[in-house]
Amino acid sequence: MRVLLLWWVYIVSVGVFSASLSKSETISIGAIIVRKSVNGKVSEIALNAAVNDVNSDPTILGGRKLSLSIHDSNYNGFLSIVGALQYMETDTVAIIGPQGSTMAHIISHLANELHVPLLSFTASDPTLTPLQYPYFIQTAPNDMFEMAAIAEVIGYFGWREVTAVFSDDEQSRNDIAALADKLAERRSKVSYKAILPPDTIGTREEIEEALAKVKLVESRVIVLSTYATTGRLVFEVAESLGMMTSGYVWITTYWLSTLLDSVQISPEFAKSIDGVITFRPHVPDSDTKTAFSSRWNQLSNGTIGLNPFALYAYDTVWIIANALKAFFDHGGTISFSNNSNLSPIVGQSLNLGALSTFDGGEKLLKNILETKMTGLTGPIQFDSNRLPLRAAYDIINVARGGFRNIGFWSNYSGLSIVSPEVLYRKPANRSTSNQHLHRVTWPGETTQPPRGWIFANNGSPLRIGVPKRVSFKNFVQQVEGSNEIEGYSIDVFKAAVKLLSYQVPYEFVLFGDGIENPSYNELVRMVAADILDAAVGDIAIVTNRTKIVDFTQPYIESGLVVVAPVRKQNSSAWSFLTPFTPCMWGVTAAFFLLVGAVIWILEHRNNDEFRGPPKKQIITIFWFSFSTMFFSHRENTVSTLGRMVLLIWLFVVLILTSSYTASLTSILTLQQLSSPIEGIDSLLNTNQMIGYQIGSFAENYLLEELNIPRNRLVALGSPEAYAEALSNGTVAAIVDERPYVDAFLADRCQFSIRGREFTKSGWGFVFPRDSPLATDLSTAILKLSENGDLQRINNQRITKSSCAKNALTQVDQLQIKSFWGLFLICGVACSLALCIYFFRVLRQFLKHYADDPDPSTRSRSKSARIQTFLSFVDDKKDVSVSKLKRKRAEMSQVGNREDPSPSEEHMQV
């Protein structure tokens, strides 16, 4: 019995001791950093401080202790991999790092295989996605958000093209790819990419070579994505090349703000970055952040300043600690087992047998992703893509040896001068009017936002192609005896250039042999091929050209029209019938008779002027009807209904006579021109020849769009050739653009435009794709149009036709569809008046019928009753009453002769 008791005490003691050991066990976590880097230095200090704070609070891990091992990769990818393998061999439950995204891609494969969560606050490559790397977690904002912020700043200032300068590594390349996507959403683009050697190995000569090429491109908005070592050298070289002067825009990723926050920069470097915009991960102010900032000098011994990545490093340790707390609270134990995938190669030269899988890795990962806490960097929570729920940046402007905050960006509300914490309490508003930044000091110490681009070839004059026309020279021509170019198109271009806020050096280059008009399609292709920098002239904006170049806003409307010979059409003896169509004449005559008949009906019982023999009454109807045309009717209307109908009809007559008079005047006074060709449709229905101008897009349009056989087309080169071909019948008509046709018809009244324009387009100036000058000149052309200068140039350069008014299109006949509303109103008024009239007459007749003392009246047949009614209607109102009285008197006399009874006598009285 005593032996059993001793054995039980031994077992309990061993159990208590084992439990005590398990409670005081050490939990290993690792970190991979670059100790020489700025972020490596602050991270090491913050990581150690966080581990000490976690271990000093026994409520977090229940007496267990975190053990942090820090591995220095020393900018070496191989050493990063070695460090990760060492941690996997020593039962590490989580790894913080690596510092660079390139190694994060590689080490994440180890983490996936061995189920060890990998947390990094500096490897923020947008392509480190949870689908490919489920055990990798970014505890700081992903660079995709920073690229979105940069793109919104670029859009805020209206820049369309960007030059990207970046290091040749995984993170920088993917950052620029993300930037290009964000810019494309705002109709901007990365127009040039300059690749630098990877950080720490690039030489000054290599950077000089890359920036020298950047200096030659048009875009002056430069986005620099690199690291501190290379970044310093880039700005030193840029200043020596004169690339930190007025007109340039430099935007860097957060490496520069990190450098400014952490180290004391030299005056020389401060001067080289004057006017730069950079970004800093936004950390909201809080008591815990203030307290940690106060501790920082003690923790760092004043060797380095505090930057946001120190705060992210500190919070990363606490994310792991809280996840471990939840892990242990739910009964989790730390254990490792052999990886079955490594079994076939264990025992070979590689010591892979030491690598083991963390059995609780999946559960710990789940706890990390479910983190909801408030750290030094503010509220910490991950969204469905395993990214921090809210991402925000401070926008920093470096100027005059210091730097200042010019605004904020957040994925919630975009650009703002109000901190994101304030905006989170309001509904999201990303409208353009709600996007604001403070004033920026740009390179060259200017506060005026730079244009963002210059002309190619380092400011050399633009080579602008101008068609060397041999006809219609009022649009473009070379002044005889000089190299000067003039004309309507040239005047518009020069006036637009004067409205630009910057100088545009250019020189005109004539295109064509001077024998015949050049091919405008070829001129446009030369601009697309960069043989010419632009093209100015009477160049139509058509679809096939807009596919390869950009056009400015049209400065004159244009469109294809048909020109044909016409002859004067003399007025005939029956011209007075022309204003109305036959249908219109018929309806009008019918309504004259209808209204006359209605008025006769309404007035017949009351008005002596509408009574008499049938012949007279018919004449009265006709006379009254047509006399209203001239408002000369003699008959007076006495009934209310008749006056109402007549009033409405006279209004209709007024409109009809006014329209008829105006149309007849136009027909008799304007010269009427006739031609068998009435427009493009009638021309297509013939087999006659069609002329077009050499070099015009009309040829392709007729062939490709209208499918006219080529053997029907005749190329003509001048207005004189037009006139001759039309006069001698070589062509039946000419198809050309409206401005040319107007100039051709200026003094040739024997020809005329037939039909309407059957295409709509305009003339514009040609520039290469995405040229910012095309946009600026379009704005200038709109200003010319608004202030009237465009019309003034048009009046000076384009001769107006002296016979244009005579050659206007023929006057159209007036049709019933233009007046059916009036006729409808009149018809409804007549119908309503007749209904009211017959209702009243019927009521009077029934009363008369009931009062008739003659018993034979009630015994008549139906036809006799109708005849009686018609007779009643035909009688004048007072006549029918007198007839009734007379009949009563006659019946009274008959009754007296028959000795009527006293009651009957009383009734008669």
TrEMBL record:
Keywords: Disulfide bond, Glycoprotein, Ion channel, Ion transport, Ligand-gated ion channel, Membrane, Receptor, Signal, Transmembrane, Transmembrane helix, Transport
Gene3D superfamilies for the chain: 1.10.287.70, 3.40.50.2300, Periplasmic binding protein-like II
UniProt superkingdom: Eukaryota
Listed CDD domains: GluR_Plant (cd13686), PBP1_GABAb_receptor_plant (cd19990)
Protein name as annotated: Glutamate receptor
Annotated region (Disordered), positions in chain: 878-909
Family annotation (InterPro entries): ANF_lig-bd_rcpt (IPR001828), GABAb_receptor_plant_PBP1 (IPR044440), Glu/Gly-bd (IPR019594), Ionotropic_Glu_rcpt (IPR015683), Iontro_rcpt_C (IPR001320), Iontropic_Glu_rcpt_pln (IPR017103), Peripla_BP_I (IPR028082)
Native organism: Kalanchoe fedtschenkoi
SS bonds (residue pairs): C749-C803
Protein task: Glutamate-gated receptor that probably acts as non-selective cation channel.
Primary location recorded for the protein, binned into one broad class: membrane
GO molecular function, one term: ligand-gated monoatomic ion channel activity
